[in-house]
Every structure is written in C-alpha cells, then in structure tokens.
Amino acid sequence: xxxxxxxxxxxxxxxxxxxxxxxxxxxxxxxxxxxxxxxxxxxxxxxxxxxxxxxxxxxxxxxxxxxxxxxxxxxxxxxxxxxxxxxxxxxxxxxxxxxxxxxxxxxxxxxxxxxxxxxxxxxxxxxxxxxxxxxxxxxxxxxxxxxxxxxxxxxxxxxxxxxxxxxxxxxxxxxxxxxxxxxxxxxxxxxxxxxxxxxxxxxxxxxxxxxxxxxxxxxxxxxxxxxxx
Length: 229
Known about the structure:
- This protein has helices spanning about 35-45, 80-90, 135-145, 160-165, 225; strands at about 30, 45-55, 55-70, 70-75, 95-105, 115-130, 165-170, 175-180, 200.
- β2 and β3 (about 55-70) form a beta hairpin.
- The longest helix has 15 residues, at about 135-145.
- The chain has a 6-stranded antiparallel beta barrel with strand order 2-3-4-7-6-5.
- The radius of gyration is 21 Å and the shape is globular.
- It has one domain: Roll (Pnp Oxidase, Chain A), CATH 2.30.110.
- The chain is built from 5 helices and 9 strands.
C-alpha cells in the first residue's frame, strides 16, 4: 500500500462514499458523489440551511458558510443555540447542511409534470465548535472571502472583543451527496399534442452594481475585486 510522504496531504478519492443517508429514495439517478461537482456547487453558493434537533423537535436555520478544502465553516453569535450546542455536546452536534441553486422553472403541458432545474448538496455529520484561535481566524477569513473573494484582506480583522462574540463551527465533508436536474419537461406521450407551451424558464443570477455608503470618504475608491463581479 502506498503512503503519502511526510508533511503531504494524502490524495482524496474522486468521489465521496455512498451511505444510507446520502442515497435518495426518489430519483436516485439524479444523485452524484463526485468530489469536484460537490465542491463546485458549494463554492458557487453563499447561503446554506443548517438542520439539527433541539428539545426533540427539528430546527432549520439559514446561515452563511465557507469551504476550506474538505471542511465547511459556519458562523454566528456565541449566544446562538446551535453554536452553543456544538460546544456543549460530546463529540458535537449532529447536523444536516443543505445548499441549493435553482437554475430554472420547468413548465410542462400538464400541471403534474412541472418541475425545477436545480443543483444541490446535502452534508450529514457532526458539527464541532472551533476553539483554536488560528483556525478560527482562517475560518472567518474564508467566510468573508466566500461571499466576496478578496474582501478579507481589504477590511479590518476582527478584534479580541469581536472574536469573543463570534462562534464558528466546522463540519467535515465526509458524508456528502449532490443532486441535480437539467433539461426540459417530461410530458406524457398522450399530452404532446396539447396546445400548451412547454419548456424552461431560466433564472438569472448575479451581482448588481455596488452601492457605496453615504458616509464613505471621498478618497476611497471602488476596489478592483468589486469592479469585476
């Protein structure tokens, strides 16, 4: 068996392993476990939904995230319930994180076959609170740069008081799957002659022009990384 040289990171398999939780019971043919595809879907997004169980009931919260290699970082206030729970539980808090891009609405001849073109990722695992100061600092930079690449270096870093008020949790990408739908409507053969339009209504995504604060100093210019978004 080959082993990695000292100080190097072992190469990752091309795909994540399938588990009972990552194989969907419906439209399993749309599921994928390709590592590059999963990373691409995660990197294109900025908002995830964090699901966990609190007092026996399910809770789902929207939050920002950032990816560093095979780790997702999520942040929030130290007073946030899920972030407190990750520090109190041993070994951590069981969570499910989802990221979804809606690429278009699929309009079919029949109401039943209307659908959505999408790309999504589901991550299962144990979330743990980040306590190492260096890792926490890297994670916060990653969260800022994930939303606007280059922004972390172009803003004041968090001070001790702000770091103390901010919690970061990490979720390793071990139990992961992607699921996608592309293409047009899948109408029934007997409906093909119906006089109804069928096709895809694509959704446009992107940034609008940056809007400066009214109190911005006149000598502060728009940074290049915002001119190119």
